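Need a sequence for this fold. Nothing fancy.
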């Protein structure tokens, strides 16, 4: 697509992932593969994905609500609202929501990536088939490598 576009606050494509939601604001089809943007929301206290890395894209986070403990390059960083995190392609990382209230953040991937991961995970959640082994398979198909155990709070 060679056109700009606007996504208003109540728009975007909602994906229900069980313990949290993702709103797709931009995907590869809309940005000619340049960028994907998702807003993840409703991430409860203690929530976080397994340690992982993306083989095909860099990822960035911008914290909108709540507080996150980011694990990146062997270090931990407490990230309140307004914090920005950049994760280069191939770098292991994860996070955990440390606030009492739910977390909400923007996730940016460049070049465009990971929308398929969230779509497949939402479908597995809806079908009741979201398990750690299913997560591994979904991750592999979407150029992501799971490096650590899947926390109970993630699925």
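Here you go.
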């Amino acid at each position: 697509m060679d056109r700009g576009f606007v996504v208003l606050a109540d728009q975007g494509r909602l994906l229900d992932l069980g313990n949290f939601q993702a709103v797709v604001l931009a995907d590869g089809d809309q940005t000619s593969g340049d960028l994907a943007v998702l807003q993840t929301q409703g991430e409860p206290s203690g929530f976080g994905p397994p340690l992982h890395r993306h083989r095909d894209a860099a990822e960035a986070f911008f914290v909108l609500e709540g507080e996150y403990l980011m694990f990146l390059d062997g270090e931990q960083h407490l990230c309140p609202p307004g914090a920005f995190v950049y994760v280069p392609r191939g770098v292991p990382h994860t996070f955990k929501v440390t606030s009492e209230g739910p977390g909400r953040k923007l996730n940016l991937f460049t070049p465009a990536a990971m929308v398929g991961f969230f779509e497949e995970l939402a479908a597995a959640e809806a079908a009741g088939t979201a398990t750690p082994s299913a997560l591994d398979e979904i991750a592999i198909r979407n150029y992501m490598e799971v490096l650590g155990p899947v926390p109970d709070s993630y699925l």
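For context: Residues 1 and 30 are 6 Å apart (CA to CA).
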